[in-house]
Amino acid sequence: MRVERTEEGAAPARLPEGLRVYAIGDVHGCADRLARLLDLIAEDAAAAPQAERRIVFLGDYVDRGPDSRGAIERVLAPLPFAAETVPLMGNHEAMMLAALERPNEETVSLWLANGAAATLASYGVDDTLPAARWADRVGEPHVGFLRRLARCHRAGGYLFAHAGIRPGVPLEAQDEEDLLWIREPFLSSPDDHGAVIVHGHTPTREPVVRPNRIGIDTGAVYGGKLTALVLWADRMRFLHV
Fold first, then answer.
1. How many CB atoms lie under 10 A from the CB of residue 176?
2. Tens-place pLDDT, residues 21-49
3. Omega prior to 185 cis, within 30 of 0
4. Residue 100 phi/psi, 5° resolution?
5. Which of 3, 71, 116, 189 fits 167 for a cystine, CB–CB 3.0-4.6 Å?
């Protein structure tokens, strides 16, 4: 499993002194790569001077990949170093939670059309088990995890959200649907949003760095990299597996 560490460079915003933030892009069931990426983060944190560390997971832990259950377990597991963890909700967790809590033709069909079969298989669920019993098989610890996921997170000059934000709408007034699902007009907007938006959701071959946003879904489940963005002061680098 190949790993990469880019050289540090100037970041488009600032964090408070003493804070180091790691943002992790869309995992989509690639639990083994997530474990290796967290090992890289531990190595990076051990060599860094910042006393406060924070890991922001940008959502989409589940669907399409081989081990969604393992990915959630890895997010929930204790870290080998002191750090705050902030797991955000992605649109795939929103679909999963809706299907588990309100199983009907609409919620179940939407989730199944977006990679649910792989997630269900990781919990030992096959197509003979009625949807009304899926939540029991997933188990309360993981369903509770889905319920508790934050929709966004603010740190210094950055806002972290799974998909992005609606340009022209104040950050504090963003709609949950946009935070989880938006692509355009966010991706092409040149606007100053009041913070640099760090997001996943839209896969690209390499991270995308713009003056107003940083995209770090590098398509791990499609054979691309799993990426972490490292931010401190007015600097940044990337870690890839």
1. 12
2. 999 999 999 999 999 999 999 999 999 99
3. yes
4. -75, -40
5. 189
Which domains are delineated in the chain?
4-192+201-240 (3.60.21.10)
pTM above 0.90, yes or no: yes
The residues with which 227 forms a beta bridge, in sequence order, are 240
Q: Quote the DSSP letter at residue 40.
A: H
Confidence band of 71 (pLDDT split at 50, 70, 90): very high
Distances (CA, A) of 106 to 55, 99, 111: 34, 8, 9
Residue with tokens 């860094």: 48
> CB count, 10 Å around CB of 219?
18
Q: How far apart are CA 227 and CA 217, in angstroms?
A: 7
Q: Which of 128, 138, 173 lies closest to 61, judged by CA?
A: 138
Composition of the chain by helix, strand, coil, percent to 5: 35, 20, 45
**Among 116, 35, 23, 112, CA closest to 71:** 35
